[in-house]
Amino acid sequence: MRENFGTLPDGQLVERLTISGHGLMASVITLGASLQDLRLAGIGHPLVLGYPTLSPYLSEGRFFGAIVGRCANRISSGVAEIEGRTYVLDRNERDRTTLHGGADGTGRRNWKVVEQGTDFVILADELPDGHMGFPGRLEVRVIYRILPELSLQITIEAKSDATTLCNFAQHSYFNLDGQKDLSDHILCVPANTYLPVDGDLIPLGSPAPVEGSHLDFREPVRLGNRLGGELVDHNLCVSLARTDTPKPVATLTAGELSMRILSTEPGLQVYTADHLQPGSQGIGGFPYGKHAGVALESQVWPDAIHHPDYPSAILPAGQSYRQITILSFAVPRES
């Protein structure tokens, strides 16, 4: 299904595209190529935070479900040196850092629909050379595809005509039980280390052990035991390099429903939505407040351009970037 979802202030039409199959249904809007709704057959509530109208996506719902880039997460001081040349980037976060590719990053742009089938949709965007200060004309596309056994695969592909930064992430906020906060969710992430950060949420340097910290999710942790304490908005280092084949990076459970995330990416940014304040009504039937969902963003480690020992976010000219993230669900079987 393809339908009108609203009109942007500049007159551009935003569309919503709905795909389904194998007991799973997903709706994607062209603004940010965002996952607007995700449903499982027999479950009466959505599995992601989203809004039924366009307006909240321009304010409180910024980045909800979006494909963020060309460089996800933060770049310190909004400066990057690539192939010996210094690039001054758009400092869209408190005029200090570059967040998710700048103010006009892919999570804020209206993507084009390339193709849609019953169980898949392909969207594309093109970032010109110099866009938000980054070098290279970058062509990017995302493929949402429903797979058997209750899985949604998100594939992001990109290519640039000049060496540039390229690090995309899906930015959905997940809520698996339809309640107003995450208290009864259980999270497990197989990461032995994380990146400590400064007041701007910029990594300080080398990874630190999660052991003894509030970021130790190696064994399943009830999120209600962590909410309201130290901030959870950190990169967990699930591996030291990108891979060709998706690997397990997180499991989120609420009641008898669970979601396993598999990804090719070496980092997982975990954020428990501390900034949310009740505003517009969401697709869940209520306004979203603090801790209404958890973002689990598979990506290269943040600010990698300033840390040679991190997995690289550099995409050489003419080479292809490909990221795969799979959301795989398990529900109780009828006896």
TrEMBL record:
Pfam families xrefs: Aldose_epim
Pathway(s) per entry: Carbohydrate metabolism; hexose metabolism
Molecular-function GO terms, alphabetical: isomerase activity
Keyword check for Signal: no
Classification via SUPFAM superfamilies: Galactose mutarotase-like
Family: Belongs to the aldose epimerase family.
Reactions this protein catalyses: alpha-D-glucose = beta-D-glucose
Top-level taxon of the source organism: Bacteria
InterPro entries hit by this protein: Aldose_1-epimerase, Aldose_1/G6P_1-epimerase, Gal_mutarotase_sf_dom, Galactose_mutarotase-like, GH-type_carb-bd
PANTHER family per record: ALDOSE 1-EPIMERASE, ALDOSE-1-EPIMERASE
Record Gene3D superfamilies: 2.70.98.10
Protein name: Aldose 1-epimerase
Enzyme Commission number: 5.1.3.3
Keyword set, alphabetical order: Carbohydrate metabolism, Isomerase
CDD domains assigned to the protein according to its UniProt record, in alphabetical order: galactose_mutarotase_like
